[in-house]
Predict the structure of Homeobox protein LpHox10A.
Amino acid sequence: PVQHVPDARAASRDQPPAQSHRPTGQD
């Protein structure tokens, strides 16, 4: 969710979201 921006990034490394094509910075 937008409310959990830092949380979303932390989850992105565990499970890539639909925006996986976007460099979250940890790419």
Notes: The mean pLDDT is 59.
